[in-house]
Every structure is written in C-alpha cells, then in structure tokens.
Amino acid sequence: MVTGQRGRPRSFDRDAALDTAMHAFWERGYEATSISDLTRELGIGAPSLYAAFGDKRKLFDEVVVVYGSRYADFAAVALAEEPTARAAVGRILREAAEIYTDPAHPPGCLVISAGTNTTSAEVADALRRRRDDSLAMFESRIRADVAAGALPADTDARALARYAGAVLQGMSQQSRDGATRAELEAVAELALLAWPA
After folding, report:
1. Which of 27, 33, 57, 176 has the most CB atoms lying inside 10 A of its own CB?
2. CA 150 to CA 168: how far, in whole Å?
3. 115 phi and psi, to 5 degrees?
4. Which residues form the HTH tetR-type domain (predicted)?
5. Which residue in 117, 111, 116 sits closest to 130, CA to CA?
C-alpha cells in the first residue's frame, strides 16, 4: 500500500487505504477502531494518516461514503428498478442476505453496526440520518404504490417502511451473530408474508 519508512510515504494508494480502513471500521465499529489500529493496518504513521485524511472522524465519514457506493446502493437500485414496493423490498432483503454474509468482507452492514456503543453523538447522528434516508426511500415508494392502487388505501406507509427497515437491521445483526445466507433468505421470505395483499 505504501513504500518508504519515514515521514510521508513516497507512494500512497488512497483507495486501498480507504478500503483497509473501511474493513477495520466495519469489523470493529467506530469507537473500537483506534488510530493505532488504523496506522498499523494502513502501514503508515499517524502524521501520514492525519495529512491524508484529517482526523479519525473525517476518515470514517469518507469510509461511509465509499461503503455506500460499493455495498449499500443495492437498496436504491432495487427501489428504482422493481415494479412494486413489495418486489423491491423482497429483492433488497434477498440481496442483503447475500451481501451481509459474503465472506469477502466483515458481516452485516457498516452503517447499521459501526455506531454501536459509540460515545460520539456526531457519528451516531450521521449514521442514524443515513438509516433514516433509507426508511424515507422505502416510505416514498410504498406511498407511490398506495396512490397507484398497488397497495390498499389504508396501508400505513410509514409503519411498513419501518418494518422493512427493522427486518433489514435485524438481518445485519443476525449475520454478525453467524446466521448463514440461507437462514437470512428464509427470514426475508417470512418477512414478505406480512406485506399487505
């Protein structure tokens, strides 16, 4: 990732460094990932880390953006491509089962798990806003289906969106607890049984 032994590295692969930092935060969370963990895993000194990324919080913010573009955009894609909210949520839950259990990276969702037990209100709030944005996307799509007659007129769009979000967040934690892809796919199918006819 870097070459040279002292001071600013002669060669610094920013994308590779962000990927390494992302895996560290994803595995351990924001709070439990220290600057010394990051410098050790990135193979750079603290001055180089600060010069490249600012502080730990700024690095984390950048990591969350990279994570979103690589691993979390599947929900927005499904909501845009599927013909109904139910089909989109079903696809999202099935894809989450695959992504959350992929052995190529830490289990679960970084945005769901990284803020657990953090003492940083800013980090917790930023991650909460991202999760709230996802719920708002779900709710908007559900409301569109209600307006189009694809869902009953009395459907509580907000509650249904929150239900889908709760299942997704639960699947993330279950994957961290060792649930397999097949087990999470079964959860996804059961969750869809609660969807209004």
Report:
1. 33
2. 23
3. -90, 5
4. 11-71
5. 111
Radius of gyration from C-alpha coordinates of the chain = 19
Rounded to an integer, what distance in angstroms lies between the CA atom of residue 131 and that of residue 123?
12
Mean pLDDT value across residues 52-62: 93
Rounded distance, CA 106 to CA 112, Å? 13
Q: How many residues does the chain have?
A: 197
| 32: helix, strand or coil | coil
- The pTM of the full predicted model, rounded to 2 decimals, is 0.87
- pLDDT, tens digit, for every residue of 119-174? 888 998 999 999 999 999 999 999 999 999 999 999 999 999 999 999 999 999 99
Nearest to 122 by CA among 39, 51, 60: 60
CB 2 within 8 A of CB 42: yes
